[in-house]
Amino acid sequence: MIDYRIGEECGVFAVYDPDGDCARTAYYGLYALQHRGQESCGIAVNNNRDISYYKDMGLVNDVFDEGILSKLGGTMAVGHVRYSTTGESLRENAQPLVLRYIKGNIALAHNGNLVNKGDLEKELSISGAIFQTTTDTEMIAYMIAKQRLAAGSIEAAVERTIAHLAGAFSLIVMSPQKLIAARDPWGFRPLVMGRKGNAIYFASETCALDTVGAVYERDIEPGEIVVVKNGEVKSINTYVKTKPHSMCIFEYLYFSRPDSVLEGQSVHDARILAGRNLAKEHPADADVVIGVPDSGISAAMGFALESGIPYGIGFIKNKYIGRSFIEPTQSMRENAVRIKLNVLQSTVEGKRVVMVDDSIVRGTTSKRIVALLRKFGAKEVHVRSSAPPFTDPCYFGTDVPSKDQLIATNRSLDEMCELIGADSLGFLSVEALKDIIPNAGCEYCDGCFCGKYPIDVDKYLNKYDEGDD
Ligand code: AMP
Is the CB of 419 inside a 6 Å radius of any atom of ligand 1? Predict the structure, then answer.
């Protein structure tokens, strides 16, 4: 059966700069987006009428060096960081995807996940397509190449292609002359545009614009296609406002960097509000509030502000754990957590502690760190999650483990609390999610917390189940 949950928690970055060394700019942009994917990364640049690229498994810092960047150059570049979730940790799945077709070369970088990957695969395979990767990005690329045969331009081909896609995509397409940014009509994943002088930038998050010194201009609208050619910007709005805006709420809770602003809403402020609401819904009698690094920190501050309980630094995280980290052997298991995270004893010893994390998925992390806090003398540990319990899969690009692995499946709150060894446990309610993004001015998708999705996913799932076994 086709697996349509190849999770793609990725980051994209692109730049047009007639005066710049675009590969280098993309390197810094991707560096800022590293949190969105640590498995592989790549940069493609225009090279006269051709496209050159370099990509590999690993972190941006490990994959690129001075020699590689100086050879790439370019007046346009597109970059990608990738995180996959279904064991598809393959070198050939690294992006940008660069392919040659009848009209020349194109490069593609994609964040998101299509729900009709199976339909596309069938449609394209019947017409003779052979796939080199297991990504839906390749299907988008083939579809663009196919549509380009009848369309007058690459942007017209992208426009026609979007009619065939269902699901999440924040997409960058680069031909040797044009840079195109497109966002799915639901706007599941973020995509922003910025400028500096003559240069134009696209990025998954504003933190990448800040990093390269660009000024944020606007979010790409859901369904919008923005085309940059020789510094001229054109917008194609065929699909704008054709679907309900369904920004992923988990971007605010966990995925994006706190210094990013998505749809006008600061991520840090959203987390503070999540923490404040959590304190209202699940108060605790305690002496100190601590956050689990990194994404639990802002929510813990919000909890402390609302409850009046002092905020303290409870954990110190080792910043240098990368891909090459060797997992501890069985005999070192005891220390496994403490290699990554250690407790600041003076904060928690003899205290009643509220420990805030951004989410509890399987409960493994909480279980380990609750035990660690007790070992360091915490008198009580009250665990609070600024995300509601995960109940359902995400089909749009967030990695949610299968139902049997989720802590909330078939367990009451008391049972979950017992499992992680806490004195009390509280999750932010699904209802409170609307209160955490007051400045976003858009609707959001919270399907992984309630099973209700803005796209009728059953339509695609049932089809696959019948046809592919
Ligand atoms: P667990 O041990 O399965 O309960 O995982 C909880 C931890 O995983 C939390 O500290 C989160 O910060 C982190 N987390 C939550 N969602 C994701 C995700 N989609 N990908 C990677 N890490 C995640």
Answer: no
Instruction: Provide CB contacts within 8 A for 268, sequence distance 6+.
Output: 258, 259, 298
CA gap 221, 283 in Å, rounded:
38
CB 341 within 8 A of CB 316: yes
Q: 27 Cβ partners below 8 Å, 6+ apart?
A: 43, 60, 64, 69, 79
CA distances from 146 to 120, 125, 157 (A): 12, 12, 8
Structure tokens at 184: 């799915």
Cβ neighbour number for residue 221 with a 10 Å cutoff: 18
Q: List, in sequence order, the alpha helices (H) in 212-355.
A: 249-250, 267-281, 296-307, 336-340, 345-348
Helix (H, G, I), strand (E, B) or coil at 158: helix
20 lines ligand 1 (CB under 6 A): no
Q: Whose C-alpha lies nearest to ligand 1, atom 17?
A: 399
C-alpha–C-alpha distance, residues 171 and 12, integer Å? 8
Atom of ligand 1 nearest to the CA of 7: 19
The answer to whether residues 42 and 96 touch, using CB atoms and an 8 Å cutoff, is yes
Ligand 1 atom at shortest distance from the alpha carbon of 357 = 10
CB atoms within 10 A of CB 242: 12
Which residue lies with its CA nearest to atom 20 of ligand 1? 399
Cis omega (within 30 of 0) for bond into 294: yes
Residues 108-161 pLDDT 10s: 999 999 999 888 888 888 888 888 777 889 999 999 999 999 999 999 999 999
Please work out whether the CB of residue 340 comes within 6 Å of at least one atom of ligand 1. Answer: no
What span, in angstroms and rounded, lies between the C-alpha atoms of 350 and 344? Answer: 12
Please state, in angstroms and rounded to a whole number, the distance separating the CA atoms of residues 189 and 172. 13
Cα separation of 128 and 430, whole Å? 45
Tens of pLDDT, residues 430-447: 999 999 999 998 899 999
Quick check: is 394 catalytic?
no
